[in-house]
Design goal:
Jelly Rolls, nine-stranded mixed β-sheet, eight-stranded parallel β-sheet, Immunoglobulin-like, about 650 residues, 35 strands, 10 helices, alpha+beta
Length: about 650
């Protein structure tokens, strides 16, 4: 077969076109990227249950904390009078009737540490008349991994205790404990146990390094459905996520009710899933700097998640002004000087220089209904943003799916507005979670798109029947990843239309997963990339600055080509069960084959904790200047140099 490249009609490739999308789903932030080891560290957990239009939220601040020893005469009570921080007012009162009793923290699935690991431990204690001491530490059974001692002040005031500690032994599934060595009563709040090797003191290092290795061009955050909330009160409010971490008001997570049905009294296994906002707006921008990626923050348009609610602020309601101002203030927070309100907040948090924000997402995946009045409200937001910050590029949305009546209506509306003003939106966000067969059928979908409407494929993944809903790493079989590689050749061939793309979801903690497949899986001990992760990495690292017209003459083979300087990158997917001999030709000189980067496997193969690199890219030595053997079920990048 032949793979033919044509220089005529080439189009530029958007710099950093392959990015990542971060949402706090699957315990990806709290319990994941946020390196904090303790669960419900400030006693603000909520128990959430219910269904559309009827969500019940109850304070359950003692969640994840248990009496220690299990049968000990320990009484715990959640209190909020004279709190340490008014924004998060709950704290725990512990009363013990005998010496050596206290509380333990479940720490998600238990604490994992290597011998010699260094951590930062802190907590607050208030005592009125307790005369004894206290011990805090991590333990494997009765053996301390580390422990510290303190003497609470019996003066009725809150006091902070901070320590730098080192693990004396390795542990897995270990328990954190706070113990009073004498019978008595104290108040406790705001615990933290943070590995010292956390990136910027915030991000779990192994996960952050996996993200950095992707070399993403941009980061879309913080959602997703989290932006909208299951109710407007539950939406992500970025202004509550900045400033001192202890003062960031805890919010229940929209995914806490995912999967809740009548058969379980509308209670999900994740009913306590919350957002501590330890990673807040500022930290997301820091993450972008660490990754060398451009930030793409997304803000609410005053519509709750349309799958879960009909709640919306009407476009003519004066209340909508606060939502518009929140969107405008994002730019001021990111780019404003110290002489601005929100620029000063950023500077006081430790970043006097602007973050250099270029993009903002207005809404997540809304669509037009009588209740949402999405078109009217978006036009208001877009006009106000362009009026105050004409340099900011707006990312819009055309709904939660593709090729449906609402999707077609959204595109017609978008194009109509673009004809009036080319800056109405910079690009429109499309989402598709579809079977592999659909991905192959759609490799040419963007060839027919109008060239005035740019696309950001902001959420996509191949969902393999019988695998995608397993909520385990097996959801990420090679069958799906290969189909994604194929549909992305179509995105690359149409780089003048599809300017940005990001897989979704990004992160999943094993055993605490609401959605699959996912790009990166992890537990308390380690993390690994799925086959899909490596497909995204190959697109991120092995893509040029110009995209050539590309054609193949074999069924089941999909290709695209880009070039930078003297290098040409030809991506080829062989989705057949046969080895195919391919010759690469072009109407220009592109040199000889320098290297081959290749992934291949059985459709059922997947990476796991046991085999984290079962299917990864490998280097294959070329045997010909312009010919190659394409293994069955393979994705290859052929690199030529002239």
């Amino acid at each position: 077969m032949k793979i033919s490249l044509y220089k005529d009609g080439s189009v530029p490739v958007f710099p950093g076109s392959t990015g990542i999308f971060i949402e706090d789903i699957n315990y990806g932030i709290d319990g994941g990227l946020y390196a904090e080891l303790l669960e419900n560290r400030n006693f603000e957990a909520k128990f959430v249950h219910g269904c559309i239009g009827n969500y019940v939220v109850k304070a359950d601040g003692a969640y994840a904390w248990d009496a220690y020893p299990a049968d000990a005469p320990v009484a715990v009570k959640l209190k909020d009078d004279r709190p340490l921080f008014a924004e998060n007012p709950h704290y725990l009162r512990i009363v013990t009737e005998r010496d050596g009793c206290g509380v333990s923290n479940r720490a998600y699935d238990g604490i994992f540490l290597k011998k010699g690991d260094v951590l930062r431990l802190s907590f607050w204690v208030r005592s009125y008349d307790y005369k004894g001491g206290a011990v805090a530490g991590v333990y494997m059974g009765s053996e301390p991994v580390f422990e510290v001692r303190c003497k609470p002040h019996a003066d009725g005031k809150w006091h902070k205790y901070s320590y730098r500690v080192k693990a004396k032994i390795a542990c897995e599934g270990a328990q954190f404990r706070f113990i009073l060595n004498k019978a008595g009563a104290v108040h406790i709040d705001c615990f933290s146990l943070m590995p010292e090797n956390a990136v910027y003191g915030i991000f779990r290092r192994d996960i952050a390094e996996l993200l950095k290795d992707l070399h993403p061009g941009f980061v879309r955050f913080p959602g997703g459905c989290v932006v909208e909330g299951n109710t407007l009160a539950n939406r992500y409010r970025w202004k509550l996520s900045v400033g001192q971490p202890e003062r960031r008001r805890h919010n229940w997570n929209r995914w806490a009710v995912h999967g809740a049905g009548a058969e379980g009294d509308f209670v999900s296994p994740f009913a306590h899933y919350g957002q501590t906002l330890g990673i807040g707006w500022y930290e997301y921008f820091l993450l972008c700097e660490y990754l060398g990626a451009k930030p793409l923050p997304v803000v609410s348009l005053g519509i709750a998640c349309q799958y879960m609610s009909e709640e919306a602020v009407a476009p003519d309601d004066p209340e909508l002004e606060s939502y518009i101002q929140d969107a405008l203030d994002v730019v001021e927070f990111a780019n404003g000087g110290r002489d601005t309100v929100w620029g000063r907040v950023r500077a006081e948090m430790g970043h006097p220089e602007p973050f250099g924000l270029e993009y903002i997402g207005l809404g997540n995946e809304q669509w037009e209904t009588k209740e949402s009045q999405f078109y009217a409200r978006f036009e208001i937001f877009s006009a106000r943003m362009r009026e105050k910050f004409p340099e900011i590029k707006i990312i819009g949305t055309v709904g939660p799916d593709v090729d449906t009546p609402r999707h077609k209506s959204a595109w017609a509306w978008t194009l109509k507005n673009l004809q009036k003003d080319e800056k109405f939106v910079y690009a429109s966000d499309e989402h598709f979670y579809m079977p592999p067969a659909w991905m192959y059928e759609q490799t040419d979908r963007y060839s027919d798109y109008p060239r005035i409407g740019k696309v950001y494929a902001g959420e996509f993944a191949a969902h393999v029947e019988g695998k995608f809903n397993k909520l385990t790493p097996e959801a990420n079989v090679w069958e799906g990843a290969l189909a994604e590689a194929a549909v992305m050749t179509g995105m690359e061939r149409n780089a003048d239309v599809v300017i940005m793309k990001s897989y979704a979801p990004l992160l999943a903690r094993i055993g605490r997963t609401q959605w699959s497949p996912n790009l990166i899986w992890f537990d308390a001990t380690r993390s690994f990339g799925s086959a899909d992760y490596y497909v995204q990495k190959m697109y991120s690292l092995l893509t040029g600055e110009a995209s050539y017209r590309t054609a193949t003459d074999a069924k089941g083979v999909y290709a695209s080509a880009t070039a930078s300087g003297d290098l040409t990158y030809v991506k080829v997917v062989n989705a057949t069960d046969e080895t195919i001999s391919a010759d690469v030709e072009a109407d220009f000189d592109f040199g000889e084959m320098l290297r081959i980067v290749q992934m291949q496997g059985e459709f059922s193969d997947f990476n796991s904790m046991e085999e984290p690199e079962k299917i990864v890219p490998v280097e294959v030595a070329p045997t010909s200047a312009r010919s190659v053997q394409l293994p069955p079920r393979s994705f290859s990048v052929l690199v030529f140099r002239k």
